[in-house]
Amino acid sequence: SFLFGVGMLHASSLALLCLAAAASALDNGAGLKPPLGWQSWCSLGKCGRDYCDEQEVLAVAQAMTNNGMKALGYDHIILDDCWADDERSSTGELQWEKSRFPNGSQLIQTLHKMGFKFGLYTSAGDRTCNSHGLPKPVPGSEGHYQQDANTFASWEVDYVKFDWCGDVHDQIWRGNQLSKEFSHAINNTTPQRSIYLLGVAAYAFLIEKVGIYYNAWRAWTDHHDEWSTTLATIQAQQNIGEHGKPGAWPDMDVLTTGGQGCDGALQNTTVHCPGQTDQEYRTEYSLWLMNQSPLLVATDVRNMTDLMKELLLNPELIAIHQDTQTPPAKHLGALLCFDGLFPCQLWGRFMADGSIVIAILNEGNRSETISVDFSRWGWDVSTTASARDLWLRQDVGNFTAKIPYTVSSHATALLKLTKTG
Fold first, then answer.
1. Would the pLDDT of 227 be above 60?
2. Sign of CA dihedral 85, 190, 75, 308
């Protein structure tokens, strides 16, 4: 959980750190496209409860196979701070919590046979962020970086989330060194294995060099199932700019599409308790997609609501997200809206065929008809283009020089414009 001292740099200081682009991508064969999948954090209970078990994980994997997610590319199963025992073995290895994961790492082999990649969580310090209901703190990887990396490789783990918790929490002066040390350990394992590495705090410590050491990095604090944190995450990413590339992706944290779990979720494991409106979830997915952030759904996909099906199972959007021929979207500035307290924002991403996908975000509290000039992305004023609404999955007409579009409060319109003259 990215809730440590350096994370509190917040918008002003962190934005300055994030202006530089990642120098290059980590050449470890992982993350050539931004991952799609499921993450456990907000599924059984509210975000941060951090409970998971083997039965849930296998049921989620089967549900993703049955509901169409896996066929669209959602092929990652990631466990957050919920899987490990509160004691290491007699020889110092991390262990699975046996009552929740009686078959331990055999779970990974089962998921691989189902066609999924598997990821798990560890922390830089002496303990993780959450004991997930165990009597004692769960050990982090401090003092065991290479041993833990080797353990993960021997289990055939495909993805590791490296958090910044434990005794290092406020020791930000150690961040640069420890971030590099864990990266070296993961990329030099015995047995040798290509492992996708997310560094939760890595950007703050490594800045423009983060892509040399990590496949992904966070730009902001934890994303919760709340509009305020969705908007703050988008604004933080806006300050970073376009620097995702194969092997190195800015990670906007998990998606809460459809709603987090509820209190008492163990009694009814598939119930959602949404913290956002349908339009806010649409905005969340839209901007994560435009920036080519990994799309890891942290809600219970065993209960696919109509909204979840609409947002998660759109093949046109998945194809755009997974297309790495052109860079991720760029923020193209604010737009004129009549709700003066809240701006409207424009993002754009050119595609390889010369078309552009634009996202029109209405942060305000009322519906707006927003006129967007083609000159915003360099097209001539005489340009004519056809427009396709990617959420409606339908063509919406031809436009010259500009396109007016009505966007509901807190919603985002996604349009693909293709020149016709």
1. yes
2. positive
